[in-house]
Amino acid sequence: MPTAAKLVSAVLFFLVGYGAAQVIEIQAMQGRFVPYIQPEQLFGLFSILAAAVGAACGWFVAGAGVGHGMRSAFGTGVQASATLTFILLLAVAIREMILRAMNMLYAGPFDAVQAVFGLFARYAHVLISPLVLAVLVGGGGVAGMLAEASARRWR
């Protein structure tokens, strides 16, 4: 059922996802992730995908977890950011695997599926950046608390 808290958290996590994607893109353009990700690997719709996944995580994870106090709201916000990160990393790894599979780089389908986990781990190294972590954890926690405040304000 739609509520004000779900709408607010969807909008806020849209911004968190978009902001994290922009930080990743800027740092990749500066060459900070060279062993793990090349600037040309970031496809044009990466920020939009991150924002859409963020909105969905805001609606279904953070928006559904309101009503238990501010401490719990911060944790729910961080949980929504972790869910956003997992889904986005998985989507990027699957996309990269499909591009490689179209170039016939795998011996069979099981090699391609196994490669998704390696690509997932490779792209997860990008999250070690303090600025990316600050956006995801700090932004997610604040967004969760604002969703809790909106749930209290508009019951």
Structure description:
The chain is an all-alpha fold and 155 residues long. The protein is 75% helix and 0% strand. The protein has helices at 4-29, 46-62, 70-102, 109-124, 130-153. The radius of gyration is 17 Å and the shape is elongated. The relative contact order is 0.21.
Count of spatially separate domains: 1
Termini, distance in Å?
Answer: 13 Å
Structural class: mainly alpha
The average pLDDT is 89
Shape: elongated
Unreliable spans: none
From the alpha-carbon coordinates, what is the Rg to the nearest angstrom? 17 Å
Number of helical stretches of at least 4 residues: 5
Share in β-strands? under 5%
- N-to-C order of helices and strands: HHHHH
User: What can be said about the biggest beta sheet?
Assistant: none
Measured as a percent range, the helix fraction is: over 70%
Protein name: Tellurium resistance protein
Transmembrane segments: 45-66, 73-94, 123-147
InterPro entries: TrgA
Keywords: Membrane, Transmembrane, Transmembrane helix
